[in-house]
Task: inverse folding
């Protein structure tokens, strides 16, 4: 049993990887007692983000083992501390990637905690008390209420879970570029996975023309029929890529692996913007010609702030936007991670932590 930080008296059952094989196995550990600003949440569901895969395999060289992944958490509040505002026992709650930040810098003060340089994550982070954070592949979590959001009543708890990371990560760049409930634009989404499929749904809900750029021809029919994509470009098809040149105002790149940005940039109109949210562990190739000939911009973004996360959840409630999920049991996490490696999921695995039905 790990972790001996004082006050960490609550024994929790979870699932962890012990080394870079990434193999997940049951793991019992301690969490802190519910402090004055904390809420305790009985976890019902947790999405399996590709980041979990990067982290359990130590792709980014920063993993502290044993690691309990999971930052797409939904559950029910079972305890609230006396300083907690806006939450009560019984509330449907969500936790994403953020566990702590300094609360004093300009970013924290302007609800962009995600850019605080002392940001700590829900797992594989160091909390204020010096303890290592453990994520949502576990039965229960204690979180500071300022990093918790409400899950609207209209959203099912399983299909809403991936919104807490995948959803807000693609929502924030759209918001930053004035693409929420705004004038119709041509937007592209590269990579139709967990993040990408939510981006398509947002793009359509907000009234845009959405083009998917994918390595998987087999995803086209569903992308169009089920997700509502207007166009589908197979990135290895040079004719389709040629036809797509200079057609898009904005592109969101969600690809988890190494790839060249040159062909993607060519799809942008002059002055267009490419936002990278996918987190390849290798440097991406960035040729200068598509940049300079098209006065194009490449930038990145990490998740979103807490205010944006709640705003995104509320908008999903309003537009009835859910994730397309495949629910798995905790015993099947390794199989699910293996399928995620093989790009065999439509479009997000969600672990049924509580052993409940999806009607919650
Ligand atoms: P995912 O479900 O595995 O989706 C990634 C998609 O990328 C795949 O479905 C596939 O789509 C495409 N792809 C995979 N390998 C490729 C390759 N070699 N070349 C080109 N395309 C490839 O992963 P996810 O959960 O959406 O996460 C995507 C990335 O975003 C990960 O790196 C994750 O760590 C990162 N992430 C970043 C943030 C942030 O805050 N910036 C937040 C969450 C996740 P097609 O089959 O359509 O090609
Ligand atoms: Zn994630």
Result:
């Amino acid at each position: 049993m790990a972790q001996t930080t004082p006050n960490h008296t609550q024994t929790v059952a979870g699932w962890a990887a012990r080394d870079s094989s990434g193999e997940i196995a049951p793991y019992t550990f301690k969490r802190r007692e519910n402090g004055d600003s904390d809420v305790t949440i009985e976890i019902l569901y947790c999405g399996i983000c590709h980041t979990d895969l990067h982290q359990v395999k130590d792709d980014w060289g920063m993993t502290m083992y044993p690691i309990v992944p999971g930052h797409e958490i939904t559950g029910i509040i079972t305890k609230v501390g006396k300083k907690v505002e806006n939450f009560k026992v019984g509330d449907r709650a969500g936790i994403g990637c953020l566990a702590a930040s300094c609360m004093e810098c300009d970013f924290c003060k302007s609800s962009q905690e995600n850019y605080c340089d002392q940001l700590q994550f829900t797992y594989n982070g160091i909390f204020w008390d010096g303890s290592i954070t453990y994520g949502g592949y576990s039965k229960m979590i204690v979180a500071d209420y300022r990093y918790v959001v409400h899950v609207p009543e209209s959203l099912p708890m399983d299909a809403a879970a991936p919104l807490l990371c995948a959803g807000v990560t693609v929502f924030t760049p759209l918001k930053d570029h004035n693409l929420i409930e705004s004038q119709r634009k041509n937007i592209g989404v590269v990579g139709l996975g967990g993040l990408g499929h939510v981006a398509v749904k947002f793009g359509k809900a907000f009234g845009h023309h959405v083009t998917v750029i994918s390595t998987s021809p087999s995803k086209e029919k569903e992308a169009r029929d089920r997700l509502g994509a207007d166009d589908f470009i197979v990135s290895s098809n040079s004719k389709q890529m040629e036809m797509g040149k200079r057609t898009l105002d904005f592109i969101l790149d969600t690809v988890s692996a190494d790839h060249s940005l040159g062909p993607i940039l060519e799809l942008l109109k002059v002055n267009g913007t490419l936002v990278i949210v996918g987190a390849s562990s290798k440097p991406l190739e960035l040729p200068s010609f598509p940049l300079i000939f098209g006065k194009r911009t490449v930038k990145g973004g990490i998740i979103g702030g807490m205010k944006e996360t709640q705003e995104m959840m509320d908008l999903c409630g309003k537009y009835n936007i859910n994730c397309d999920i495949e629910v798995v049991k905790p015993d099947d996490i390794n199989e699910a991670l293996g399928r995620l490696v093989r790009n065999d999921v439509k479009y997000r695995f969600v672990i049924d932590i509580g052993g409940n039905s999806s009607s919650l």
Observations:
- The chain has a mean pLDDT of 96.
- Residues 49, 51, 71, 165 surround zinc ion (ligand 2) (CB under 6 Å).
- The CA atoms of residues 8 and 199 lie 38 Å apart.
- The chain is about 25% helix and 25% strand.
